[in-house]
Every structure is written in C-alpha cells, then in structure tokens.
Amino acid sequence: MSFLATPSYPQQNVPGGEPTQRHGFNPYADNGGSIIGIAGDDFLIMAGDTRHTAGYNINSRTERKVYRLGEESSLVLATVGFGADAKWLADTMKRAVDVCFPRLSMMKDFKFQHNLKDMTVSAAAQFLFTILYGNRFFPKYAYCILGGLDKNGKARLFSYDPVGSYSKEGERRAAAGAASSLIVPFLDNQVEFKNQYVPGTQGMTERPVEYLPLEKVEMLVKDAFTSATERHIEVGDGLQMVIVSAQHGVREEIIELKRD
Amino acid sequence: MNHLPEAWGRPRDDIYGAYDHQYVSASNPNQHTTSPVVTGTSVVALKYNGGVVIAADNLASYGSLARFTNVERLKQVGSHTVVGASGDVSDMQFLFDEQLEQLIISEEYQNDGHHLRAKHIYSYLSRVMYHRRSKFNPLWNVLLVAGWDDGKPFLASTDLLGTTFSGPALASGFGAHLAIPLLRRVCPDEAAVANITREQAISVIEECMKVLFYRDARSMNKYSMSIISGEGDKVEIEHRKDIQLKQQSWKFAESIRGYGAQVV
Amino acid sequence: MFRNNYDNDSVTFSPQGRIFQVEYALEAIKQGSAAVGLVSNTHAVLIALKRNAEELGSYQKKIIGIDTHLGVALAGLAPDARVLSNFMRQQSMSSRFLYNRPVPVARVVNAIADKAQVNTQHYGRRPYGVGLLVAGVDETGPHLWEFQPSGMVLEYRGAAIGARSQSAKTYLERNYESFGDATREELVLHGLTALRDTLAQDKELTTANVSLAIVGKDEKFKLYDGDEVAEWLEKLGNTQSSRGSRGAAAAPPAPEAAAPAGDSMDVDA
C-alpha cells in the first residue's frame, strides 16, 4: 500500500482567500484480475481469474470475482477493478435480487409488495445501471459484466463501465479488467468472427456469425485466460467459471492457472 | 482588550505575529486523517492444521523515531478471534478500545448463548473500514483477523480502503514483501494447511519476525504472538507477550555493500 | 352505564394496577383465528387457520416469512403484524449485512418486544393489536417464541394463540413431552391435530384454510399453502371439528375446554 503513495500536492493558498486543503487520501485501488462473459444461444459462461493483487503483491490466489445473485436465479455478476467497490456492488445486487426473488417461495409477499415478479435479466441490468449511475459523482470503480437467462431461456449478457453505461440490447461477449486489452481482440476473432472470411471468396465474404456450442465456448474461455496469464502479471492462479445453461442449470468450476 | 473582538482570546499579534487562520478555522474543511502519524509495522499470520498463529511487534514509530516500544497490536475479540493491526496506532486504538470493545460488550450483554466469531467480526470490521473510506475519513490500518470458525481456521484481511481478501498465509506492511515468500514456501495453498503443525507454524512465524527485524527499519526485536487453536467447537487462545527475538545473527550484515562503512 | 375511566390511554394505571389498553390489545389477539407453533430437537413448525372475510375474497395471510431461517404466525390485527414483520426483516437483513450472520431468533424477538413495550409507556401511542408466534432456527437450535403486545415474550415447546387456542394448548400440554424426539412429520401432525381442536362446530381443515410452515436445522423456512397442504391433511386423516357432532372425531378427542361464555368466535366463517 505505502509503496503506492498518493502524489502530494503543494498547498495552494489564494492570497487573501480562504486557505485551501487537499486530501492526501486516494479512496481507490486497483486489485487486478480479469473477467469475461460469453453468451451462447441458451447458455452463457461467466469467468474470472482468482488472483487478487496490490501493485506487485499477490494478496490472495483464491478470491472469486464471479457471483451468483441468488440460489434460484440464473443471474450472474462478474466484477473487476477496485476490489472493495466490486464486492459492494455484488452484495448490493445480491440483496436486490434476493428481495425481489421469492426466496424459496417464502418471500411471496415481498414479490407482491414491490409488484415485481422474479427479477428478469433485463430488469437486473437496468437496476445495475441505476446503482452505478447513482454513484456517478463518487463512482464505484469496478467494471461489471452481468448475465442470465431470459424468460424464454435465451442467454443475455450486459457489460458496464464504472458509471453505468451499458447496451440494452446486450452482447455476445464481453471482457473487462487488467487483461481485457489482450482478451477482447481474441474474442472479436473467435466469437464475432472478425477478420474471418469464407474460404474461396478471396476475403470478400465475411464468415457469418453463429452461436457457438458450449464445449467450444468453454475452450475459448480457458484459452483466453491461459494466454492472459502468460502475458499479464495481474492474471493467474485460478480460473473460476460459472456456466449457466437453460438445460442443465448452473454449474461452477475452478481450474488452476499458472501461479508465477 | 482592544477594539477587535475577533482578536480577543488570541495571542497578541505584536508579540506572536499574525494568527495563522489555517488552524482551528471553522470555515476550513473537517480535518480527516490523510496520512498516518504514529505507526505500527507488519502483522504476520499463518494457518496450521489446528488453528492460526498471528504475530506483531511492540513498536509504535513516529516517522523514523521509535516512539513507543511497548505497544500491543494484537487484540483478542470475543472468545474465537484475534485481530492484528498495522498502520496508524491511534486509529488502531480507536478500533480496539472503542469499537471492538463495545461490540463485544453489547454482544455478551444479551447473554443468550450467541457469540460473535471470527467471520462475524471480520465482516463487521470490513464494513466499518469501507464505510469510513467512503466518507473520506479512513481508519489508516491494515487489519488481519485470525480465528477459529465452523471447525476450521479463519484468516482474512481488510484495510483502510475496505479491500477484503483471505488466504492461508497473510502479512501486512513490510511483511507482505518479506514474510509472505517465507510463509508461502511452507504453505503455498489452502490444501497445505492440513500438513502444517502448530510447532511448525510457530517456528515459521518466528523466522518471519526475525527477517522482518533484520530488514524493516520500523520494526523491533520484541513482539507478541497469539496462537488460536481449535477442535470442533472448542477454542483456545494463547497469548505470548514480550517475546525477544532469539538466535539473531548479524553476520550477513558484513556482506552488504553500499550502505555500511566498508569501501567496495 | 358503567364507564371505565382508566382505559383512555396506555400510560395510566387503574387503581388495581392494570393498564386496560394493553389488556384490550391482548383481547384483539383472541379475535383472530388460531395459530399453533411447536418445536422438536431439529425442527420448528407453524400452523395457522386462515379465514376469508367473504366468499369472493381471498383468505387472509397468517404466516409471514422473515428470512430463510425464521418466520412468524400471527393472530389479531394483520396490518400491525406487517409492521412488525417488516421490522424483523430489516433486523435480519442488517444482521446479515453487518455481521454476515443470520439474526439469532431470540435477538429479533427481543427487538420487537422492546418496540411493543415502548408503545405501552408513551402517551398518544397504542399497543400493537397482534400476537405472534416466532419460529426459527439458529446456532443454538430450533426455537419457538410467543410475542404479546404488552412487550412480553416467552419461549415455548408448543404454543397457540388466537380464537379457541385454549383447545390447542390443552392438546399441546398433553403431548409436549413427545415433541422433542418427534420427526418432522410427527411434529406437523401434532400441530395439525392441535389446530383441528380449535375449529368451530361443523368446520374442517381444508387446503384453503390451513397455512403451514416448517423450518429445520438443515431445512430452510418454507411456507406451504393451498394445494401444498393437501399431503399433510391426508396424513392427518380426519380433518373435521370434534365439536358438536362428536361421532365424527376418531383421533384423540381434545377435552372440550369450556369455550368461554360470550366468546363471539363465530366470526370464523
């Protein structure tokens, strides 16, 4: 911590005016790590590494960044950035979903009280925007990816910047965090088929985008993180994957990444 | 008394010079801690197969001055938990003597068979730390919470930003650089905890305290250690105070070039 | 007509040392339909009889979930129970948020007791007009508490509140010794039998008028309503009131605790 001391500004007192003071306290830190989310047709994978850093230090090798927002919900939130803000966001979202969800059917009346049914992905997405933008002038310094299944079992995925900007249409893939600049072009190519052309068309016809099967997506996620681990010092130790499938429910998996 | 009421009760300008309005001016922003004053250095802790060992030395520094040499930076909170603090000593004393003391009093006052355990106290502390940072009025500390919980050793950290994380071996301050490599050598991951005995854990922590004393200029050769050991629901906490560093060897100092009196 | 001069507010004692407003509040509980609660070494159960004010309307709510380890059954003014249960939910939420701990049952019960007591000692306030049975599980095991508007709370192995609850209490008193080792199923059946004893003449337990909630050491609080109750009523067998037409009652007939005269419990329609 102390090695990342905040810059000290000189005191600037306006002659004759009120003496001004500056805070030497930086309320943010960067705890490293990366997250990604990829949506298939009726499934999605949310993943993040489990390394937690402060500068060159590894605080922990086992901190999770992907959170299920309710035991009976398909909603999953991944957060990365300033660890304390990220966790706060996850806690806040969990509570909101908990209250709106008929927790084990006992909260039935809570549902009615708020005139809400089970919180849908798009409702949760809009809610997360409200939370983030509500802190516009003291932002929660965390990048979020939110995913889940909609009423028809279709996968939806949304990604946010720290002050809440997101696309209501959702997206097919998202990446954030320390190694996002390494992962995004990889996903562009492998999920959106960017720069891929139909063979024999002399690079004239782009390869049409299609949904990928679960096994393929799982491999992409693992490849993305093993590669990011090679090239980024803040990524590694473990890979946490949460797989939400309309057919097979929710499954969580943790596999090892290099710890160097 | 002159004709300027605003000067009444103040040192005379003709003798002491004009009053510096930067002090005690109501229109100034509230003064928050923006940097620590009297500080404690590292806290180190390691899980073992029956509990946790945690240690911190007894020095409180005022800048580079070794100001107080008998400060206790480990506190037992309730019956299951020990909290260790590094960073600002007054903030530590506020947390230990005001907040945590009150927390335990009001918990035990209920007398209903419920007790706050390590994970509860850790949750409370991290909420306090994050709340204070969000008010731009941080408690300038890094806290390690060690304890016995749900039949398992518990160890986690929170700091002035409210950042939280846990692990089988943790250290704050200089310890994060010097002790962590030593601790991770014997305990690379959670699974390794099962193979570490109490005696091993104690000796590794002792070794860490020694290395820290060798290399950390804000440390001292007297420290406290708490050993939290548990079995099922039973917890025992042993406090060792005023431990003197043993078996010091300064031979290595001769080989250090560039700082001492030696030439080349 | 006789006029009581000591019941205008809840801060004035009568010369006999009574606070009438508080006693009236206790009467309000008896106006509500019955609720029964009981605990074993592993489970706590709440069972309540619901009324519907009119054919076209829904049945009133008798059991409210507070958290995954905790819930209440009520008798008396339902709106007052909502105020209390919302408060309990807040307490429960903040316990989880601040301490990462489900709130201990005794704590949340004492918290509402303190709230209720304040109302009996401030001019211009009125006591809550509702009694609660609070069932929950915490680190010290399953618990059942009764809450009264006087601010009184007591822990029970079996308890009943509401209209004709005396009949249920009589059943519980005769059987409580077997509750401790009872299985989950036995405990529920004891509860249903006790509740059946509170039925008015010619009434019966149905899927429409029974609410049931179970919480256990390894079982989250779950409310059974409507069709979910059917299996339990089947296990119970006889669902008829044992009052009046006595022939019908096959199960151990509860000794008729002489219904207090002037007990206008026929509101139970």
UniProtKB/TrEMBL annotation, chain A:
Species = Pyronema omphalodes (strain CBS 100304) (Pyronema confluens)
Q: Name its cellular compartments.
A: Nucleus
Q: Where is this region: Disordered?
A: 1-26
Domain of life where this protein originates: Eukaryota
InterPro entries of this UniProt entry? Ntn_hydrolases_N, Proteasome_sua/b, Proteasome_suB-type
Looking up PANTHER family in the UniProt record yields: METALLOPROTEASE TLDD (PTHR32194), PROTEASOME SUBUNIT BETA TYPE-1 (PTHR32194:SF2)
**Which protein, by its recorded name, is this?**
Similar to Proteasome component C5 acc. no. P23724
Q: GO terms for CC? A: cytoplasm; nucleus; proteasome core complex
Q: What broad taxonomic lineage does this protein's source fall under?
A: Eukaryota, Fungi, Dikarya, Ascomycota, Pezizomycotina
Please list which residues make up the signal peptide: none
UniProt keyword list: Cytoplasm, Nucleus, Proteasome
Q: Name one GO biological process term.
A: proteolysis involved in protein catabolic process
Automatic annotation (TrEMBL), chain B:
| Gene Ontology cellular component terms for the protein in this record | cytoplasm; nucleus; proteasome core complex, beta-subunit complex
Which InterPro entries would you find in this protein's record? Ntn_hydrolases_N, Proteasome_beta4, Proteasome_bsu_CS, Proteasome_sua/b, Proteasome_suB-type
UniProt keyword terms in alphabetical order: Cytoplasm, Nucleus, Proteasome
Q: In which broad location class does this protein mainly occur, judging by the first location in its UniProt entry?
A: cytoplasm
Q: Name one Pfam family in it.
A: Proteasome
Location relative to the cell: Cytoplasm; Nucleus
Q: Superkingdom of this entry's organism? A: Eukaryota
Q: Name one GO biological process term.
A: proteolysis involved in protein catabolic process
Tell me which family the UniProt entry assigns to this protein: Belongs to the peptidase T1B family.
Described function: Non-catalytic component of the proteasome.
| Xref: PANTHER family | METALLOPROTEASE TLDD (PTHR32194), PROTEASOME SUBUNIT BETA (PTHR32194:SF6)
Q: Mind telling me what this protein is named?
A: Proteasome subunit beta
Recite the lineage of the species.
Eukaryota, Fungi, Dikarya, Ascomycota, Pezizomycotina
From TrEMBL, chain C:
User: Where are stretches of biased composition, namely Low complexity?
Assistant: 248-261
Q: Which residues form the Proteasome alpha-type subunits domain?
A: 6-28
Q: Tell whether Lyase is among the UniProt keywords.
A: no
Q: Give me the ranges of the annotated region Disordered.
A: 235-269
Query: Is Lipoprotein one of the keywords?
Result: no
Concerning SMART domains, the annotation shows: Proteasome_A_N
Its localization reads: Cytoplasm; Nucleus
Q: Which UniProt keywords apply?
A: Cytoplasm, Nucleus, Proteasome
Gene Ontology CC annotations of this record: cytoplasm; nucleus; proteasome core complex, alpha-subunit complex
For this UniProt entry, which residues form the secretion signal? none
Q: Which Pfam families match?
A: Proteasome, Proteasome_A_N
Tell me one GO biological process term.
ubiquitin-dependent protein catabolic process
Fill in the subunit field for this protein: The 26S proteasome consists of a 20S proteasome core and two 19S regulatory subunits.
Q: Which family does it belong to?
A: Belongs to the peptidase T1A family.
The cross-references to PANTHER family, in alphabetical order and at most eight, read: PROTEASOME SUBUNIT ALPHA/BETA
What is the protein name stated in its UniProt record?
Proteasome subunit alpha type
Species whose genome carries this gene? Pyronema omphalodes (strain CBS 100304) (Pyronema confluens)
